[in-house]
């Protein structure tokens, strides 16, 4: 008899789990609470007809570099990657900028006096990225396939990002590295905070920071198309709140946050695991502003006009302090802001001179205040007169983000901070972090290793655990 599986949630991890199970011959049904699939990969018009905005995820260095997604024929289902001329820029107040190019040699040349140090820091990881990607995009508590190369990554990843940045001499290189680390929503002066920076830089030098043509929704649309081709089904508009809401199945995979999983499983889940799931708390959140601008942004550092992603926050020291305040529950006066200029690689996002500028600031989890002016001011700081170029703006507060996507608890879009505790024990300390303690039920959301990002690796690792359970004959 064919085994049956239910996957709750149709984000990249839920769909990745579903596709992997279907590849193994399991009959799969995906159940999504929203009327549309995709989770954090939504795309659409928000304020001006013809101008398309990514609702959350936007730029995908880990998507194109994912060891699992790279094996799937997603291009057959419409996915096309598009690259900007420059992957990422980090402007400073003096009009200069640190630049991350896909090509390591070009990046090294642009960093001047720090070029050799940058190569020494990230070059070996870039050279071995394809070999170690599966090791570093998975649970920490396991024997790696490539122990020496993975250990080299670990030595850098376990350092505080601020300490690693001090090995660089120029303000441009230091700020570029710290801006990468700030994606982790954690204190940057604590051990483990360099992990995200090392991952994003190495992935960028290996495969670049592309966008999906037409919007991030194209990624999950392609995955859904493949799942359907494999015989899987998707049901939308159905909320799963209790185990009794689920149809009978041999396997259940939950693309939800741990507190929601604990609610669904109720008394079936061992108390100690349920307590661990319910204890999880977010510290940082995204306050998003989707601008429509007329013409160019007007960057003082002109290279920023060619970069798909721009990090705004000033010097390395300024960003370290802003992130410390966020984690402490204090709203920084000048928050760290991420900018996406997706139209540079994908002109179809724009409508003539009207272009979508994707932006979000790091704020404390659940922050209730209005941060729009602070986001605009940070952009205007590095692009004077920007505010005059704004035609429209659409705001997504942390509360609205959670309303749209219940996995974004208090506006946390990353599944929890990427601090040392979460790197090792996400969502709890276990050799099988995907197991919920309930037979045949697995957690596959970004709360599991390797964490946030559109890479599908949380889902495929959970699916592999579920397939081992089936093979053991436990059902």
TrEMBL record:
Residues 397-419 are annotated as: Disordered. Residues 401-411 have a biased composition (Basic and acidic residues). InterPro entries: FAD/NAD-bd_sf. This is NAD(P)/FAD-dependent oxidoreductase. It comes from Gordonia desulfuricans.
